[in-house]
């Protein structure tokens, strides 16, 4: 019976060593304060509506924070338009593709902080709108992002 007890003792020690090694590996893999490339997450995109008619360009909301913006544009004029953003720096100037009369389009743009003029492009006589883009919006960390 002495040999069986020695074998059990070896098995128990081996099992304890294996369990201890597994616990160390598990603990090492669960680091809590690591920095990740996507931390903090960028702000969630916002939707801004734009209406261009023969008289003016209307934007809602007229003030928001910097970050990714999706413009939902409705051309209610008699001519094709191109929603054009004129920003505080030349790299902030952007334009949508041409939108036919009674057409709609989405235009996504990363907007920096500053004051912008938004017009209907070269072919439009609509009075431009003014918008103020504030500091970058808060991170979308801990927010449910919907498609």
What does this structure look like?
With 147 residues, this protein is α+β, with helices and mostly antiparallel strands. The chain folds into two domains: 1-31; 46-136, Immunoglobulin-like, CATH 2.60.40. The chain contains one helix and eight strands; from the N terminus they run αββββββββ. A hairpin with a 7-residue loop joins β4 and β5.
Give the CATH H-level superfamily of the largest domain: Cupredoxins -  blue copper proteins
| Number of helices, where a helix is a run of at least 4 consecutive DSSP H or I residues | 1
Oligomer classification: single chain
Q: Biggest sheet, open or closed, and with what strands and sense?
A: 8 strands, mixed
Q: Within the CATH hierarchy, at the fold level, what is the topology of the largest domain?
A: Immunoglobulin-like
By CATH reckoning, the class of the largest domain would read Mainly Beta
Tell me what the CATH architecture of the largest domain is: Sandwich
Q: Please provide the ordered H/E string of secondary-structure elements.
A: HEEEEEEEE
Give helix % range. Answer: 10-25%
Structural class: alpha+beta
Uncertain runs with pLDDT below 50, 5 residues or more?
none
The geometry reads as rod-shaped
> Hey, roughly how much beta strand do the residues contain?
25-35%
Nearest-integer average pLDDT: 83
Alpha-carbon distance between the termini? 69 Å
Count of structural domains: 2
Gyration radius, in Å: 29 Å
Instruction: Tell me how many strands there are.
Output: 8
């Amino acid at each position: 019976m002495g040999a069986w007890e020695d074998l059990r003792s070896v098995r128990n020690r081996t099992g304890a060593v294996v369990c201890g090694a597994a616990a160390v590996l598990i603990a090492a893999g669960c680091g809590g304060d690591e920095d990740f490339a996507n931390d903090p997450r960028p702000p969630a995109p916002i939707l801004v509506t734009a209406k261009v008619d023969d008289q003016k360009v209307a934007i809602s909301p007229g003030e928001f924070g910097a970050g990714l913006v999706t413009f939902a544009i409705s051309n209610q004029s008699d001519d094709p338009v191109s929603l054009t953003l004129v920003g505080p720096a030349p790299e902030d100037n952007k334009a949508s593709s041409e939108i036919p009369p009674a057409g709609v389009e989405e235009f996504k743009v990363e907007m920096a902080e500053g004051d912008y003029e938004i017009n209907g492009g070269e072919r439009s006589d609509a009075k431009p709108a003014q918008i103020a883009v504030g500091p970058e919006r808060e991170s979308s960390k801990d927010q449910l992002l919907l498609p």
